[in-house]
Amino acid sequence: MVLRQEVINIIKQSKTIAVVGMSTNPEKDAHQVPKYLKEVGYKIIPVNPNADEILGEKSYASLEEIPVKVDIVDIFRPSDETPSIVESAVKLNPQLIWLQLRISHKQSKRIAEDHGIPIVMDKCMMIEHKKIKARSQA
User: Can you list the domains of the chain with their CATH numbers?
Assistant: First the structure.
């Protein structure tokens, strides 16, 4: 399934991404994907209660603690944990909520949509960003 144009536009215009479940382990996707996103110019805000800092960025224990505007909330947590995370995310009023590859949940989708926030599920933001970048360079 191809991303909707609305989602592509949000990705292109966004600057700040809160990454819930960002890992300190360089081997994990939850570290590699936000590292890539930072390298291509996004401001990354790690959300990991077990880390003070990841990739040189201050880490927060929860979404509620983030003191700045967040454009996208990118979630690397098990599917069954996502409804409560999405409940917290909608309070930040992001432009987009993103559930990474192999993460999806009907209730999370409903929560986001009930708040008028687009949600992407079961897709890797790094892979999709690379596709968007390649199309815009073609």
Answer: 5-133 (3.40.50.720)
